[in-house]
Amino acid sequence: MSPRIARTVAELRAALAPHRADGVGFVPTMGALHEGHLSLLRAARDDNGTVVLSIFVNPTQFGEAADLDAYPRTEAADVALAAEAGVDVVFAPSVAEMYPAGFATMVSVGGAITGTLEGAERGRSHFDGVATVVAKLLLAVQPDRAYFGAKDAQQVVVVRRMVADLGIPVEIVTLPTSRDADGLARSSRNTRLSPRDRAVAAAIPRSLRAAQDAFAGGIRDPRSLTDTVRAELAGLNPEYVEVVDADSLAPIAEVERPALLALAVRVGPVRLIDNVVLVPGLDDRIPLGPNGSDHA
Ligand code: AMP
Fold first, then answer.
1. What domains lie within the chain, and their CATH numbers?
2. Rounded CA gap, 70 and 108, in Å?
3. What are the CA-CA distances from residue 226 to residues 48, 90, 207, 215, 220 (Å)?
4. For residue 283, how many other CB atoms are within 10 A of its CB?
5. Is 78 within 8 Å of 55 (Cβ atoms)?
6. Using H for helix, E for strand and C for coil, what is the string for 19-78?
7. Burial (Cβ within 10 Å: 0-12, 13-18, ≥19) of residue 139
8. Which region, left, alpha or beta, applies to residue 242 given φ > 0 means left and ψ of -120 to 50 means alpha?
9. Is the pTM here over 0.70, yes or no?
10. CA distance 88 to 12
11. Å from CA of 27 to ligand 1 middle
12. Is 66 exposed, middle or buried (0-12, 13-18, 19+ CB in 10 A)?
């Protein structure tokens, strides 16, 4: 069945009003849906009576106007995929609906979790934009559960902090990063990679996998692990490669508890991010398919 399309918060609330009893699951996205988004929708479908997908390319989280303009917009195809995934309501508001004239309130999550990694590179205003739009979307949908991808690991930490600090009554569920056969994390931005860039980008998961191999071999020093990543990314000049505490995102001297190994790198016209969590005692390495080292 085709999902209902709601363009305004009023339409969304009216569509959801009769269906709250069996639980509402919510998957916020910027559209251009791929298998990563679908994995979130499947989890939402399994857990809830009603599933809401939002599609909104949020201008307040983009630093570069060119990136915002180039962001793929494929609503008709997204709605068709949403129908297949059993989505009940698609919330696709206009920018004016989300940020009407006179809009003056931003939600700003402070501290180390927004100052490092993406916050250091793109500026804290990126996460102000993320926190503001996620808060607005959670208030609009009022879901029981909201689903986020581990690919945007820092975003999950920021959203969890905001939800706890503001007392928003929602369970945040995190799903693993969905990857292509060669290990590249799926991303709406991948559609902007040329075939050549796409082949180059395969170095990203290879680099993370090399660090996972080193970690499995007993390496616990963040510098050795990031050097391993940088060696695999030779020529790509990453914006950052860092190992931080997985919860606080603070720098660490040694991996003694779960740590986040995260990076950002430009390939052609696109800025890509990826990460893995390194957990002492747990071996959970990225499988690398046909063009990766597992099958080489
Ligand atoms: P986006 O549309 O890129 O803003 O992403 C919407 C949601 O999908 C966010 O929670 C992302 O973390 C998640 N997501 C994006 N790519 C992936 C992926 N490859 N695997 C899992 N989740 C993803």
1. 4-175 (3.40.50.620), 188-278 (3.30.1300.10)
2. 26
3. 40, 40, 9, 11, 11
4. 9
5. yes
6. HCCCCEEEEEECCCCCHHHHHHHHHHHHHCCEEEEEECCCHHHCCCHHHHHHCCCCHHHH
7. exposed
8. beta
9. yes
10. 11
11. 9
12. exposed
- Cβ–ligand 1 distance for 36 under 6 Å, the answer yes
Given this model, what pLDDT does residue 215 score? 98
CA dihedral 68, 72, 76, 80 (to 10 degrees): -120
Query: How do strand 240-245 and strand 259-267 relate by DSSP bridges?
Result: antiparallel
- In this structure, what token pair is assigned to residue 136? 């607005």
Counting ligand 1 atoms within 8 A of each CB, the residue from 33, 40, 58, 273 with the most, and so the one to mutate, is 40
Q: Does residue 232 contact residue 246 with C-beta atoms inside 8 Å?
A: no
Residues of the chain with pLDDT under 70: 291-296
Residue 180 CA to residue 186 CA, distance in Å, equals 6
Secondary structure of residue 127 in the 3-state scheme: helix
The pair of structure tokens assigned to 169 is 């009554």
Query: H or E segment at 164?
Result: helix 153-166
Q: Is the CB of 187 under 6 A from ligand 1?
A: yes
Query: How confident is the model at residue 292, as a pLDDT?
Result: 62
In whole numbers, what is the pLDDT of the chain averaged over residues? 96
Q: Are 135 and 111 in contact (CB under 8 A)?
A: no
Measured distance CA(255)–CA(260) in Å, rounded? 9
